[in-house]
Amino acid sequence: MPKTGQRLLSMSRRQIRFETQANVWLISLYYGLLGFLIVGIAYVLDMRLFIGEHASFFQVDYELTRQIISSLVAGIITLNAFTLNSILVVLTNFSGQFTPRMLLTFIADRKTQHAVGIFNMVFVFILFSFFMINDGTAEYYAAFPTLTILLMFFALATFVFFINHAVKWMQVPNLTFNMKNESEKQILTTLVEDLEPYRTQEPKKEEMELNEDEGTILYAKDSGFIQVIDFKSLFQYAEKKGLIIRLEKRIGEFVLKDIPLLTYWKREDCDVNEAFICSKLFVGRKQTEVQDIEFGVNKLKEIAIKSIGNDDPNTVKNAILQLSDLLLSISEITHFTPYLTDQEGNLRLIINEETFDYYLYSSFSHISIYAKEDPVITNDILHAVSLLASSTSTANHKSVWMFAMMVARGYQAPFAFAYHEKDFYTHLEKISHMTRNYEGYTQLEKELKERLNNPTFA
Fold first, then answer.
1. Distances (CA, A) of 72 to 124, 128, 152, 279, 305
2. pLDDT band with cut points at 50, 70 and 90 for residue 10
């Protein structure tokens, strides 16, 4: 079996759906088949029912029909090639400036895929129409020239729409917004469907005290990234067999062969199908966004970091604000507890504990390191953190305040303008008020002013 076929068979159904939606070839195939269908309809009308012989509204002889179709074959090829070549050149430059993942995100956009599919449909129709018309079968045509002209106008309208769509999509605010929406759609919906119905804060205490010596460890058979975990199937199997399964690695982590993947505890009289359990953890050669929250965060973070190097503060600000919105969505939808229980409250699945701190630091800490001497970007980070402090639940306020202090203490340059300094302390004060850390702010402000205003530091 070809490697592509083996790879598809090794994927979960959700991963296959994600991969097919992210590739343009599938929708192009659908539109190509639609083009064949339209050719068949035109063939029946003109070369079986001979409507061209009887039509009075649009009757075209063989020679003119052939000229129309042959001219438009070259036209649709040129239109298709020019459009795709121009867009790919622009996107390649954008990928180098921002992130290589941007090209994949653009290709996965449904509007892009439909536009490319329509070009292919028109090309298939015109090309096969050129080979099908025959003066020995019919002298006059109506369906072929009519449909050819109509579809060519449709292709021209699609061309205008596609250029307009590409220009709008590549504007920085739309770019970061689309990436954030894609992450929310692929990640948060998946997590809500798979995990939230079973999460609990406090499972039965005796089940939490597991004897490590009694657990059975299952190891990775191949090296790669953990792309997808079929939580629902694992949970149902654990419930059926009375197992407790603990995942040792999180989605998106890279594992080497023979590294522990999970540990399970069973009843003495229970037969466990270990191959079935291992088959529900899918390891592949690259990270995907199907379930990996951090991968979606990293895309926006990468845009921000590259924009710092390109001296593009507006793009940095947009990426930071979209990151804060994504973090808010994660905190609202996902309860950060590792325990999944059945309806009776029995512990069935333990996943890696993920806290709001983890995603907060994963989003902004790397950016703050690159911005440690840039007061504008540092203020943008603090502004985003203050927005989070005002929107997220009180349970996350301590994490937000601790992170704000880390960003403030990591800033290393003196303020060249009083406005930036005022903005800096205003954001910190606002965060301290929202998180109820008034005394902490007073001490932090004194510490920072002594350090940043020290002449030897400047």
1. 12, 12, 8, 51, 46
2. low
Distances (CA, A) of 449 to 31, 168, 379, 456: 64, 44, 16, 13
- pTM of the predicted protein model: 0.83
Select from 3.30.70.1230, 3.90.1170.30, 3.40.50.300, 2.60.40.10 the CATH code of 187-313+326-354.
3.90.1170.30
- What are the b/e assignments for 312-343, b being 16+ CB within 10 Å? beebbbbbbbbbbbbbeebbeebebbebbbee
Structure tokens at 46: 């003109």
Query: What integer pLDDT is reported at residue 454 of this predicted model?
Result: 72
Residues in the chain: 458
pLDDT, tens digit, 9 for 90 and up, residues 336-386: 778 888 888 888 898 887 788 889 999 999 999 999 999 999 999 999 999
- Give me the residues paired with residue 60 across strands: 141
For the beta sheet containing 281-284, the strands, ordered from the edge strand earlier in sequence to the opposite edge, are 254-255, 224-229, 281-284
Contact call for residues 441 and 424 (beta carbons, < 8 A) = no
- The two counts, helices (H) then strands (E), for the chain are 20, 10
pLDDT tens-digit series, residues 199-240: 776 666 555 678 888 889 999 999 999 988 888 889 889 999
- State the Rg of the chain over Cα: 29
Name residue, tokens 């438009």. 72
- Identify the burial level of 90 via C-beta atoms within 10 angstroms of its C-beta, where 0-12 means exposed, 13-18 middle and 19 or more buried: middle
> What tokens were used for 423?
């903005």
3-state secondary structure 314-343: HHHHHHHHHHHHHHHHHHHHCCCCCEEECC
**The residue to which tokens 């290393």 are assigned:** 412
Q: What is the pLDDT of residue 458?
A: 46
What 3-state class would DSSP assign to 405? helix
What is the distance between the alpha carbons of residues 435 and 404, in angstroms, rounded to a whole number?
A: 11
